Amino acid sequence: xxxxxxxxKSEGYLLExxxxxxxxxxxxxxxxxxxxxxxxLLCAILKxxxxxxxNIKYLLKILQKHDGTRTQITGIEASSEEVIEKKExxxxxxxxxxxxxxxxYFEGGDDAFHFxxxxxxxxxxxxKITYGINEKAIExxxxxxxxxIVIARGKHAVNGKNAxxxxxxxxxxxxxxxxxNYGKVDYKDLNLFFLxxxxxxxxxxxxQTKGEKGMNVMGQExxxxxxxxxxxxxxxxxxxxxxxxxxxxxxxxxxxxxNRISVDPKLDINSDVDxxxxxxxxxxxxxxxxxxxxxxxxxxxxDIEIGGTVSGGTVEGRNIHVNGGILGMRRGxxxxxxxxxxxxxxxxxITAERNVYISDVSLHSLINAGKQIIITEKRGQIVGGYAIAxxxxxxxxxxxxxNVATKVEVGINPIINNKYKALASNIEKAKKQxxxxxxxxxxxxxxxxxxxxxxKMKFSELKRTQFPLAGEIERKEKELSIxxxxxxxxxxxxxxxxxxxxxxVKLVVSSCLYTVQTETxxxxxxxxxxxxxxxxxxY
Length: 539
Hints:
alpha/beta, 44 strands, elongated
């Protein structure tokens, strides 16, 4: 029979039909090409060439090893299975699927092992293992060849860390009363302001890292993902000392604006707000040592602290702290975008988008809080008027012994409801506008070759407009989702009375109405949604 070869390295196998016998080579995988495992094809080729003196178990073992060794499968060398087994006893190197480890083992006993370090290094070279080779592990294996041991390890890629902003002003303390060493809470020191001096560090950007590339045992590089950058954004009255440090440009109050810090200068007024000052409309924070007299107004973008009383005046700001108290005289109003803190409220109309804190008493007043009304110090009493809170009202006493009509309500927040409706309406209008823009762009695209100069300008303008508008819709939809969750949370609203609720008090809890008929002490009023009534639980 003339010499014949069938197969090739690219096909994964090679059969050589020679005068001295038939030889089989099964090549190891390269570049993730699957291993050749078709025993049926090999048997069919041997049968076609009238080759019968081979051992099928031996063929299967050659396929399993796939180490590129040229092996005779017929003739004297393969005449007995016993001889074959002796020729096969060589160390086996296995590479993990992710190519990050290579392990070696030997199926024979210690007496059958006669290989040295150079032989194993050559095996590694034949398998193209070039990185992370542990020669000490190879020497250990040679001493104890019956163990399975990892002799090469790759290096995993390390992804870079994202940049982040580290604030040097602790805004988390805002609104928290200070506490003495003896555990006594000082409600007059509420950490409402964060004063900074010119040159103070406000925030710092910690830059992203590039990461470290990895390497598998085949010497192939593994890419890493670099960290994401983040901008250090300047706020009002701030300066960048360098690309990573933000400082205050003036003395004033540090204000947290989400993704940036601004500095508001503080306005001090050492007298009453009256004819000598006129109305005040200021873009920072205001400290008034006197009173706000009837008919005058104080408006501020920042916080307002008043040392005396509000007597029929109007006050609008972010946080409002009135040390004396609020005498509305049935015409004054106090509006806060966050919290209101005061000693007492009488015949006043006050609204806080977040919380209202009253340290003594509320008399015949309209109180509206987005989240909580808390009146738990001193008398801690609501008498007369109408108090509304989104989440909870916490008081010592509701009403009084002579049964003055008093109404309190939780589980509704007109401020948030109005925001929700306005935002939903804006989103709907923006979506209609975006749809109109897209329809116009389709028409312009169809007539692109026939557009006039004015139409081309309009076409460009519409293309520039659509993406910012789509971004604005996305941002507003996220805001709407947050407000929706806030409204959902109001279902768990409650009214808590530490001391007593007197007859004459009307309660509304999540639209469920209840009128107090007898003195009710140390209790919590909750909505029972199963029957649409108000239930009373212990305080």
